[in-house]
Each structure stands twice: as structure tokens, then as C-alpha cells.
Amino acid sequence: MTDAKIAIIGSGIVGVSVAHHLTENGHAVDMFEKGDDYPYPHNPQWEDIYLRRREAVHVMADFRLPDDLKHHTHSGLQTDIEATRHMWVGGSSTHWEAITPRMIEADFRAGTTYGIGDDWPLSYDDLERYYGMAERLIGVAGTDDDNPTAPPRSTPYPLPPFELADDDNVLAERLADAGITLHTTPQARTRQAYDGRQACVNFNTCAYCPIGARYSPGIHLSRAIAGGLCHLRTGVTVRRIVPDADGDGATVVYRDNDGADDITAHYDVVVICAGAVETARLLLLSADERHPDGLGNRSGHVGRGLTFHHTWRGELGYDQNLFPGRTGVWTGQIMQFMEADGRGTHGAVKVEFSSRLEQRGVGRLRWEHLPDAQAVVDELTMIRRTRPLAMVTEVAPSEQKYVMLSEATDRFGDPFAHVHYEMNDLDSATYDFALSIFQRIRDATRASTGFLSPFQMWDTAAHHMGTARMSEAVADGVVNSFGQLHDAPPVFALGGSMFVGSGGAVNPTLTMIALALRSAEYIESQLL
Amino acid sequence: MSEKTITRRQFLMYSAVAAGGLVALGGGAALLDQARRQQTITQDDIPAEPGSLDEQTRVTLAAMVAAYVGTGNGGTNHYAPFFDWQAVNVPEQRRRFTLFARTLNLAANDLSDTSYAAAPLDVRRAILRDGMGVVMPDSVWFDPQSATAEPDEDDALWLEFNRHIIVEMVKIFLQTNALIMLGYNFWPGQPAGLDEYTTPIEQTRGS
After folding, report:
1. Distance, in angstroms, between B160 CA and closest chain A CA?
2. Residue A201's closest chain B neighbor by CA?
3. Which ipTM value was assigned to this complex?
4. B64: distance to nearest CA of chain A, Å?
5. For position A219, which CATH number holds?
6. Are strands A6-9 and A269-272 parallel, antiparallel or unpaired?
7. Contact in structure between A161 and A141 (CB atoms under 8 Å)
8. Which residue among B73, B174, B193 sits closest to A201, beta carbon to beta carbon?
């Protein structure tokens, strides 16, 4: 036991942001993490993959929890979300792409403006200051000078942008002729040395950045621990949250992953930031006599607002050599289709059209090529001429997208999460819109070949949202705009879970951090 | 220069010898001399448990990679940490690497009276290509439509080499040297600097 008054459940980027803010202001926190330590900086993993040439999937397996601790069941879902749920110290942001645009103003009122879902209970203006704090915390490099869709800002980016790639410039010129703006990408990478982190030197291995140039939560977690105010418990599973009857605090019921007995600890404030799926699961597991349908679930909304960013991927091939992918940073984005006419009949679309290295053609190799290295290379020349792109899209909640408790249970007998997810007519219309954008880009850039994956083949971009949504009225959601449970004020649910819908088509992590910092300020001023 | 050629069946004789338990000792000229004196050992002397590779095996594996990749394609030193780590950490790999090296040396000894590492490039390539000619049906790169030969029992040893050594080498090649051969200046994992990607590639070469 410690004398901490605050428990944080989940050591990912949201939990670490809260821990950083509170410990910097002198408050002790206990952090609970189901997984084990995941070294930061990530050079041990980098050395395994890029020096010893172990396959990344095997390296990650070294840290993965067993199936009786980390699992979910699903129905209707055609894509594997388990691989995007990293349960170890630092969470999924140990592997994120670090693309950090802000949501645009219209995304906060998509309900009244476009009829897509509901409005958020706060505006862009309410969050703008915290966006700046979040950008400074994680070191965002960027500029809005080339992005006409960027929302207004009161503070500059803390770091200058990563420029477009040479091959981006070739294509940007062609796109401009067609009225499409390919602009730089805001991202949490050190364009210059920043806050004790080295400047990026372009290892082109960003998922395992060996020098911490790409932001990873380990940066601030290690500082919080070194400062003596953050106590991290790894290898423990939180099974229940039990709010006090008088509303003064809550008890965390947890167990060592290899333990036989529950352990309890009482806190003034409990902050759940365990990812959208696990946060909903923990709230549902916390049902008791006073919360018979689950904690925060008086409205019946826990788990009900699940959204992903449906992401369709494709590629474009050109007749000329472009040599894409000479960097691991993200270069080109197209955000203008987030505000396109017709939004409402379809969702917003953000295009990621960066200079990426894709091993195109490797799958088409045949064994008879292999004895001759030059023959192998001759089969791969399309790498020099092919660029991938991704259409990241807005999704509205629906009755057929939700998280509930599964019949399958973990090693403690607690039900896993069950994810049910069905696409609907709006999703289909959004795909059609994304396909039309793809065709415009293909034609404008004079691509000679290209494809976009069919409607059924999408992934989540690892963006999981909406399972404990914000609302002003108790009947309309799970938490208020500070992430505080309507029916259990000492308990907060932060992160993507508190989103109302998908927040447009924007990568959610910067918004998650901004909301978390706003909540941390609120906790400090109102509850401590 | 025309490359030295051997028939696959001819080469498989060496594999068969090795598989049958007879492998030549030593390296370089010593190997040749000992082989001529018919001083052979069984592969029983190869440690079964994981552990560090002996120097002859390391040198032979490096020569094998260099034969495959060629010169001037970004270098081949980055393969050694893979072999070393696998030998120590992956069951059976030290035995495979050692047996593979001895097999290469035996073939080189017959074709050029040298160890594999000391053999001319065309000999080293001929030996490697001959062994890689044993198709591997469980490879992702195996196309049953175009396969002309099914592996037989004599291919068993090279099937094992291809499955556990050659395929892994090719994967590393695809991630590294192949990119240099395609015209890139760096492969992922090498700090290229931020000017690299914003500069037209022809200018980075100073041409």
C-alpha cells in the first residue's frame, strides 16, 4: 500500500498523461498494469529485430499476455482487433504511428451539423488549450501553413514539421492541379532535440524507435516513477471497482496475475484508462447491488457506442521510379475531405498518402527466383514505383456496434469482453465516398495501376472508441466531459472510450491526451 | 566469366554423405587433406544443444551469404548476429548451421580443393544454387503450378537447410541488401538522416 489518493488503471498514453500531470503537481498515484514491463527506449526490441533479425511478431510475443488473461470474443467483426490491443507497460502507444492532428471544429458537433451521431458535450474551443498542452507534452512536429483544413490554434507547434518527401512533392504538384492538397503530417516525433529526447535521425523503424524520437509513454512514466510519486504495479488484473456508498472514494479490487486471492486498495479517485474495450468490460464487471447493470451504466450506454475508424488500404503504381519510403516518418496527408459536401450522407474521410516503403512483390516471389539474388530483385522493382495509401473514415455509433460481457472467462472466472460489430448503410456510403476520392487521387497523380481494398476488407487503424461516451445528461451517456462517471463521481473513464462516436476521421490519440489533461486538471482542482 | 556448374544429383551425393553421418573434418586445405586421407567423422560430434558457433562455421556461413548477395550491395556483416543469436537461442539451429557449413565445405573441397570460404565465387554460388534447387513445398514462395520436381528422400537434408537457414537468409536479404540493389541508399534500421528522404535520390548519389 502507498499513501496515494489516486489509482490509475492502465499504463498507456492516457494513464501516463494523467500520472504525469498529477505527479508533477505533487500528487502520488498508484498505477495498475495487467501486463509486464516493456522496455523504454525500445532499443532492446529494436536490437532483436534489426540486429538479430528476429521477426517482430516473435519479439512482441515475448511480452504478450497468455490467452487466459488477454482475449475477447466477437461476432460480426471481420477484422482482428486483438493484435491492436497491447497490454504491457505503455500500452498500444508503444507501437503507435504518432500521427497527431487535432479534430476539426465540425467534428465536435457532427450530430447537429451533419446528423452523424451526437454532438460532443464540449466544443473545440473548450479543448483548444489542452490540445496545445498535449502537443507540448509529447513533442508534436508540424505546421498548419500548408493545411487549409487545420483548425485554429492559439499556440504554435512545439517543433517544426517533417517536410514532405521528394516523391511527395512530385505527386503533390499533380494533386494541386486537381484541387487536392497534400500537406505535411503533425506527428509526435522529434524533428529537433526536445525535452531530453534526441532528434530523429531517420532509422525508418518507428514502431521500435531505438532512441525515443517517436513519442512513447515510457518517457513520462519513467520520469514519474523516478520522481518517487508514481508507483507502478505490473502483472496485476483489476477485477472490480467498488465506489463508496457515501461517494467519497472507491475501492480497487485486483489480483496478481498468478495470485489466488483478491487484494483491495481504497482511493479518493480511480481513473480507468484501459482502452475502449477493456474499460467497458471493467465497468460491466463492476456491477453490484447499487449498480446492477454495471458501473456508470444507469443509462445503459456502457459498451453501446463502440466505433472504430474503418480504414481501407490500397496502393498506387506509377511508371516512373519514385523511391518512396526513404523515411519512417509520416509525410503526406489529405484532410480536406473531412469537410466535404455531402458529409452526413457519408462520413468524413482522411487520406494518409505518405512516402512509405512497402515490400510489394515479396508475396509474388516464387521459389525458383530465390537461388539468384538478382532475379529476386528483378521481381521487386515495383517497390520503387508503388505507394500505399489509406482512407481513414468517420463512423457513427449504431445499435449493432457494441461491447458486452462474453460467455468466455479469464483465469479468474471473469467474463472477457464480447465485441459485436456490423457495418451499416452509412458505412457503405462512406466507403463509396472513399473510393471516389481514391479514384480522383489515382487519376490526378497519373497512376498506371492501383487498387483500394473492397468494402469488406477494412481494419480499425487500432482506433477503438466510444464505449463510455460523454454526455451532459445522465440519461445520454456514461461520463461527463471530464470523464467522470455520472453515477459514481470518484471514478473516471478516460481515453477513446469517452468519445462520442469516432470524433470524425481524425487519429484520436492527441484528442485523448488533451481530454486526459483537462480531466487531470479537474481532478486536481475539484477532488484532491 | 562462366560459372562453375555442378549437377544437382552430383551435389546431393555430398548431402547424402552428410545425412548418412559422414562429414569431413576441418577447413581450408586441412579439410582437403583430411578428406583425401578419408579421415571422416560422424555428425555426432556436433553439439545438439544450442550454443555458440565455432569459427569455421561462422566463416563458412559468412562466405555463403557473400556468395548469395554479391559485392557492393551494402555489405553482409549484418547476417552474422542473426546466425549467432539463433545458434544460442533456437533449438537445433547450432546443429543445422554446423552441418550446413560442413556440407558446403565438403562440396567445395571436391570441386575446388578448398574450403567453401576459400573457393572461387562461381564455385560457392554453384554449390548454393544447386542446394537451393531443392524446392520447398511449405514455403510461401512455393508455386505448385510451376513446380517441376517434387522433393524426394535425397533432398531431405537440403530441405532442412532451405527451410531453416536459406529462407531466413533470404528474408534478411529482402529487408536489406535487396533495397540497395533496387537503388535505395539505406535500409530500415540504418540511420539515414532527415535530408535523405527530402532529396532526389539521384542527387544523394552525387551524380
Report:
1. 15
2. B193
3. 0.93
4. 12
5. 3.50.50.60
6. parallel
7. yes
8. B193
Tell me which DSSP letter residue A68 carries: T
How many domains does the structure of chain A reveal? 1
pLDDT digits (tens, 9 = 90+) for B59-93: 999 999 999 999 889 999 999 999 999 999 999 99
Asked if B85's CB is within 8 angstroms of A327's CB, the reply is no
Question: Which chain B positions have a beta carbon within 8 Å of A367's beta carbon?
Answer: 135-136, 139, 141-143, 147
Per-residue pLDDT of chain A (528 residues; tens, 9 = 90+): 467 799 999 999 999 999 999 999 999 999 999 999 999 999 999 999 999 989 888 999 999 999 999 999 999 988 889 989 999 999 999 999 999 999 999 999 999 999 999 999 999 999 999 999 999 999 999 999 999 999 999 999 999 999 999 999 999 999 999 999 999 999 999 999 999 999 999 999 999 999 999 999 999 999 999 999 999 999 999 999 999 999 899 999 999 999 999 999 999 999 999 999 999 999 999 999 999 999 999 999 999 999 999 999 999 999 999 999 999 999 999 999 999 899 999 999 999 999 999 887 787 788 778 888 999 999 999 999 999 999 999 999 999 999 999 999 999 999 999 999 999 999 999 999 999 999 999 999 999 999 999 999 999 999 999 999 999 999 999 999 999 999 999 999 999 999 999 999 999 999 999 999 999 999 999 998
Does the beta-carbon distance from A53 to B132 stay under 8 Å? Answer: no
Give B94-118 as a DSSP string. HHHHHHHHHHHHHHHHHHHSS-TTT
Q: Domain-by-domain residue ranges, chain B?
A: 8-188
Q: Which residues of B touch A164 (CB under 8 A)?
A: 198
Q: Compute the distance between CA of residue B176 and CA of residue B188 in angstroms, rounded to an integer.
A: 7
CB A366 to CB B143 under 8 A? yes
A43 touches chain B (CB under 8 A): no
Task: Note whether B191 contacts A201, CB cutoff 8 Å.
Answer: yes
- Closest listed residue to residue A122, CA positions, set A453, A497, A510, A483: A483
Query: Could you tell me if A357 lies within 8 Å of chain B, comparing CB atoms?
Result: yes
Query: Residues 207 to 226 of A: which have CB under 8 A from any B CB?
Result: none
Residue A409 within any structural domain of the chain = yes
Amino acid letter, A321: N
In a domain, A1, yes or no: no
**A77 inside domain:** no
Q: Residue A68's closest CA among A417, A416, A405?
A: A416
CA atoms within 13 A on the CB side of B146: 9
Q: Which of B85, B141, B192 lies closest to A370 in CB terms?
A: B141
A154 touching B, CB under 8 A?
Answer: no
In 3-state terms, what secondary structure has residue A214?
strand
Q: In this complex, is the C-beta atom of B46 within 8 Å of any C-beta atom belonging to chain A?
A: no
- The domain of A48 spans 6-70+82-526
**How many CA atoms within 13 Å lie on the side-chain side of A12?**
27
Burial A281-316 (b: 16+ CB within 10 A, else e): bbbbbbbeeebeebbbbbbebbbbbbbbbbbbbbbb
* Cis peptide bond upstream of A41, omega within 30: yes
Residue A75 lies in a domain: no
Within 8 A of A329 by CB-CB distance, chain B residues are 197
Which residues neighbour A125 within 8 Å (Cβ) at sequence distance 6 or greater? Answer: none
Q: How far is B140 from chain A (nearest CA, A)?
A: 7
